[in-house]
Amino acid sequence: MTTYYPPLSYIVPDADDGMLLKTVLQKRMDISRKLLSRLKLTERGITLNGERVYISVHVRAGDLVEIRMETEVSEDILPEPIPFDILYEDDHLLVVNKPAGMIVHPTHGHYTGTLANGVVHYWAQRGDRYRFRPIHRLDQETSGVLAIAKNAYSHQYISEQMPVGGVDKIYAAIVHGVPLLEQGEIDGPIDRDPAEPHRRIVTPSGYPSLTRYEVKERFGTASLVELKLLTGRTHQIRVHMTSIGHPLIGDRMYRHPLYEDDRHGSGPDAAAELARVAELDDYIGRQALHAARLSFTHPVLRTRMTFEAPLPQDMLALEERLRVNEA
After folding, report:
1. 139 carries an active-site annotation
2. Catalytic residue among 16, 139, 281, 314
3. C-alpha Rg value of the chain to the nearest Å
4. Which of 15, 129, 165, 227 shows a CA-CA span of 20 to 30 A to 180?
5. Domain Pseudouridine synthase RsuA/RluA-like: where (predicted)?
6. CA 169 to CA 158: how far, in whole Å?
7. What is the per-residue pLDDT for 194?
8. What residue ranges define each of the domains in the chain, with the CATH number in brackets?
9. Mean pLDDT computed over 258-265
10. For 115-139, what is each residue's pLDDT tens digit?
11. 202 CB contacts (<8 Å, ≥6 apart)?
């Protein structure tokens, strides 16, 4: 038997009297062309006053337009009882605080132990039927706020806000050194490193990439920095901070330039500084990056929503260690 999610509804106002139903769906309910095609093939996908109709009909003021999406599940993801921290949940969204070290979605060689495995298990235990649809991704070692859509409409609606600046993603990072400017923007095109395709580099031929930063606290040899992504390239924060000489503490891929002995010498001062850098990198054991805040317009409520996750314990401990070292 076909099952559906609760319908999304729209009551036609006087101003839309006589409008094509297709226009109502696309312009008033923000249904994408792709989703509209799916709904047209769904038995109860599109109804007008409870009746299935062609989208070429004209609506009248007071008419009730409803769409219904068939329920879906992620059949290719193995449910596993993996705990995770829920920040918010309703019929359309699940927002979690992802721990560092956890992969978001199964990949080649990592079919279990991911956030997706845990979320699918959580839904199955409650008898819910949802497909795992992360709205954005976080690197395995990055902690913090992650939003997951529960249906195709919610995923589409929020994803479409990203290219036009409707989704604000704020990160906290602890970096080596202290940026010269209190705040600024890093405008550096990013593309794959031809020598190591899994890495990214700043290059004139890359994709436009813009990061805004503000120094929140100085520790003498390190800084707590707040960053806002104005574009969404892979490894963007890590690449951009490294490009201005302030790599993230603990980042093994985009490392401090002192690790390159042939460029920075091997005298006693350089060796001592490298030892200090390496000690901090080893102390946290992962890139000190946390998705602290995420804001977007809710797909159904149409209100601006903001979700926050506090700094995790390992970054708090690193901060305290830096304060002690500075003293």
Report:
1. yes
2. 139
3. 24
4. 165
5. 92-242
6. 13
7. 94
8. 8-67 (3.10.290.10), 72-160 (3.30.2350.10), 168-289 (3.30.2350.10)
9. 59
10. 999 999 999 999 999 999 999 999 9
11. 188, 189, 190, 209, 239, 240, 243
Tokens of 272: 């001592």
pLDDT for residue 261: 58
Sign, Cα dihedral of 70, 76, 82, 86: negative
Spatial neighbors of 205 by CB under 8 A, at least 6 apart, are 189, 191
Which two structure tokens, joined as six digits, stand for 286?
């992962």
Provide the token pair at 58. 């004209």
Q: Which long-range contacts (CB under 8 A, 24 or more apart) does 232-238 make?
A: 232/136, 232/162, 232/169, 233/190, 233/200, 233/207, 233/209, 234/190, 234/200, 235/139, 235/190, 235/199, 235/200, 236/190, 236/200, 236/209, 236/211, 237/171, 237/173, 237/211, 237/289, 238/287, 238/289
Structure tokens at 202: 């700043």
Residue 70's Cβ-side half-sphere holds a number of Cα atoms within 13 Å equal to: 13
Strands 64-67 and 46-48: antiparallel
Q: Are 99 and 87 a contacting pair, CB within 8 Å?
A: no
Residue with the two structure tokens 């036009």:
164
**DSSP 3-state of 248:** strand
130: exposed, middle or buried (Cβ count in 10 Å: 0-12, 13-18, 19+): buried
The predicted-structure confidence for 142-201, as pLDDT tens digits, reads as follows 999 999 999 999 999 999 999 899 999 999 999 999 999 999 999 999 999 999 999 999
| Residue 9, strand partner residues | 66
Residue 263 above 50 pLDDT? no
326: Cβ contacts below 8 Å, ≥ 6 apart: 219, 220, 221
CB 158 within 8 A of CB 167: yes
Phi, psi for 36 (deg, rounded to 5): -60, -40
Q: Which two tokens stand for residue 70?
A: 């068939």
State the greatest distance between any 2 C-alpha atoms of the chain, in Å, as a whole number.
Answer: 82
